[in-house]
Amino acid sequence: MTTQAQRARPLGPRLLAKINLPGVTFLIVLFAVWEAADRAGLIDLMFLPRPSEILSAGATLIAQNAFLPTVGHTVSVTLTGWAIASCSGLMIGFALGMSRRVWVYSMSTIELFRALPSVVLLPIAVLVFGFSVQMELVLVIVSAQWPVMVSAVDGVRLVPQGLRDTATTLRLGRLETARKIILPAALPKVLVGLRLSLALSLILTVAAEMPRRCSVTRRAWATRWSRPRKRCRPTRCSSTSSPSGCSACCSTPPSSSSPG
Amino acid sequence: MSEITVDPVTPATDAIFSCRNLAIEFGHGAHRRRILQDVNFDVHQGEFLALLGTSGVGKTTLLRILGGLLAPSEGTQIHFDGAPIDGPPRGVIMVFQDYASSLLTWRTVGRNVALGIENSLSKAEVAQRTREVLDMVGLGDRIDDYPAQLSGGMQQRLQLARALAMRPRVLLMDEPFGALDAMTKANLQDELLRIQRRTGTTVVFITHDIEEAVYVSSRVIVLSGSPGRILLERDVDLPSPRNQVTTKEHPEYLRLRHEIYDAVSDHVNS
């Protein structure tokens, strides 16, 4: 009866009802206390601006149309990388979970590569792909597939023996068992892996973007690694008179498909 | 209560299952241990056979061999319908003690029942068969509920319904009522007997409860020892339908209970 009543209500109020009001209120109060304490001189955070300053700086950036395209780029790289990483992680994970032989042969290799901190891949990715969307995607995909893969392996291997026996005694085929029993039973663990890897994707996208977005590092890296075939090189840029023209030129090299 | 002797070499022709020289070992090297040895018996069409024994004697192992989930040691001759068993025999369905881990928690009661038949039957047939078996076990009004919404006894009824939907010739039941309270257990024993009478299904039923074994079965086989062997085999000649009160006051029931009790405790103490 309650579910029917919920269905009858329009979407807006239902979403509103899902908001955790006490939690949001607490957060707002926390920011207000910070702001008030800073203004009253109770605390002095030298390098950390007040919430009001952060808000107004954000508003300026949005007004200059500099904020949203960048966020859009980050979000699209994060989600694309996550989607590809999830697909490959799930496929490899299920294969490892279902076949004992595949698992025995490949688990040491996987554990070795999984232990590598993702960020150390960044210089290698930059060397191979330059400062490009491909570099960011590769970094995200390679690193974000581990949690999905490992959770898929665990999910499949920890399916209760009772369910496997049930599939056997009801004479379900291999494919039918995988589709109707193993995958649904492994799903809760897989979802945890997907969640972890989404967070990891965002972290890695931002890490991969940092050397490129931060103009000083960008110029330093670009000077060292830019290839002669690129028309727009930092050396040529630095000879132009206008510094704004330089940054516009470098941030949109003709060979790059990056939208920002 | 005639003494039934089985020829240890030739498989019986009228038996559904026939086991000769059944043995099985687990473990490797020094840890290798023989679980069952020299087990010879037949299962006949339409009978209700109880396999009785203390825990650890190999009852479940024996049932899993019959169900094709485990391969016995070499030298074992085990036949279903005259053909050697390799893999789960067609028409033989197991019902497990641990109903909670055998049910698909993400499927409704109805869709759990449909699991074994939805591939081979049409939608209408599946719906009709599902309704029929759920009515049979008294879960007709719970078809859209999820297993988590059912009590333990109901979950075990659901597992039974899922097995019955396959129209099995043989039900292999592994201590199906072992995890239930006494009153639920008594109810389910009577329902199982009613269903068995109605469908004519052959039942092999594992239990460690002597009274349950004598109450439900038409024949009891007692396993004992390590490795487990057949200690005793008795026909149960009690009037049917059984009744929780009158059957348990019947002189034959009391005599069998006494005899089996003595045999098991003598064997354990010696």
Summarize the structure.
The complex is a heterodimer of chains A (260) and B (270). Chain A has 260 residues and is an all-alpha fold. Chain A is built from 13 helices and no strands.
Walk me through this protein's architecture.
- The complex is a heterodimer of chains A (260) and B (270).
- Chain A is mainly alpha-helical and 260 residues long.
- In chain A, 78% of the residues lie in helices and 0% in strands.
- The radius of gyration of chain B is 19 Å and the shape is globular.
- Chain B has a domain at 103-167.
- A 6-stranded mixed sheet of chain B has the order 6-7-8-3-9-10, with helices on both faces. Chain B has a 4-stranded antiparallel sheet with strand order 2-1-4-5, covered by helices on one side.
- Chain B contains 8 helices and 10 strands.
- The model of chain B has no long low-confidence stretch (mean pLDDT 89).
- By secondary structure, chain B is α/β, with parallel strands linked by helices.
